TrEMBL record:
It comes from the Bacteria. Its EC number is 3.4.21.89. Its main location: membrane. Gene3D superfamilies: Umud Fragment, subunit A (2.10.109.10). Belongs to the peptidase S26 family. This is Signal peptidase I. It is a single-pass type II membrane protein. One of its GO terms (biological process) is signal peptide processing. It comes from Flavobacterium cauense R2A-7.
Amino acid sequence: MTLVQWFIFFLIIQVVHFLGTWKLYERAGRKRWEAAIPVYNAIVLMKIIDRPTWWTILLFVPVVNLIMFPVVWVETLRAFGKKSEMDTTLGIVTLGFYIYYINYTQEVTYIPNKNAVKTENTVSALLFALVVATLVHTYFIQPFTIPSSSLEKSLLIGDFLFVSKFHYGARTPMTTVAAPMVHDSLPLVKTKSYSTFPQLPSFRFPGIQKIQRNDIVVFNWPMDTVYQFFDRSGRRAEKPIDKKSNYVKRCVGIPGDSLSIKDGIVFINGKESILPERAKPQFMHMVYAKNGVNMELIKKTGSTEFSRKYIVKPTSQEQLNAIQPYVTSFTQNKDNSLTVVTYAQGLPSTVTTNIGLYAQELYDTKADVNLTLKGAEELRNSKAYDSIVRVILPKDAKNTDCFPHTKDWSIDNYGPIYIPEAGKTVALTKETLPFYEYAITEYEHNDLKVSGDEIRINGQITKSYTFKQDYYWMMGDNRHRSEDSRYWGYVPADHIVGKPIFIWMSLDQDVPWSKAIDKIRWERLFTTVSGEGEPVSYFKYFLIALLGYFGYNFYKKRQAKKKA
């Protein structure tokens, strides 16, 4: 919607409000015209319903206002004696138009200072609690779950994070009509949680810091949600920016940087990028052993992204049920034994021993596993394997999977590539245009046409372009198992969501819920995402503080009883 359309829409809302409430304003001792003046009418209404004047601001905060409107409808009804559950229900389900009925057909009496009776405000209190939660979720802190292994070892699948929106500056929502505190779909029913109409222009509040190289960042995936990872079909699910899928990666390049990758190592402005101590990049390795690759030793290095095979000889359904949570697939052999495939955890010996199941692990002479460079060196020193070779993908003229899809680059040998900066100008030629075309048209909303060597932007022939916003380069630490900027290019500044700051829960996806104690990664609870050294869990300090709080309250109550 244009600004003119928004202004007309705003005036219509004011007319609707005036027609439905002017008599109620008069019954509250106010003037009829006070119901007609935009913004001022909301301030007056707050006085009528005995609520703070600053609530008026919440009526104009996108998403939050969708909950505030029902709060105000209910409070208005209660201010004129309509306190029953039926009145409350009608006020909400009719989208406030029940107030029209009260305004024109009912002889109601205004009740000043209605909030002196606290029991009358249960519904409004619950709705306002939802308002506060939505305000925090939208502008301050948002929970986030790690869905993939692209930052494995730094952030794990099953980590539950708090993401700060105020570090880089919170964005105002573009999508004005949306369910509170959910992203693009409703839980359980999995249907769209928002309406694409109307859309608001968005701006970002000032942040307390700028994105630095190697920060871990949550952002809206620029290429929209595809139907599966590494989808090259070009299919897209069109969404507003703030409803595009949330991704989390490491920002390896900031605006103005020149980035290149040589044999898997990132270089920024010609110098090797030094990752923070907590970052543990992983690379694919081929592990060879003529006597078979022992996967248990690989697991001890911290690697978790590989599968294991076993021959099992079950004699009962009970045995099959016991190993089912660990098995990803199986095939039946001619002798009625089974070849089962498991996650990296394998079949725990405690399980197979307890149920009396024969299980023998199969060792292949070659295995491809994800390892940190330190982990690979540990395996080489163990002498248990013949050789361990890091996979390095060379440049390939036949492969155009990597952005901008016109070069022979690979994910291990890439660039150099310039990361656009707001206000900076780049030359446009047939050679450079593929790098910037998507940003110019999709992210900065220009009309671009190419005819031979002639490039037109918004109808004007041009040989250069000046960017309107900053861009970033995001990559996963799991170098060979991350769909990131190497595949789809730059991340615009208006797609930045926030900074992960805290892990409050972590669940091991390879452990079944029947072993709930083992499923929780206790050492990761209440750990910070950034910082130097190994992460330290503050969970025990939280428990101590919690026990201290309840103990102090218990002591105070006992003392109060003694005095009584």
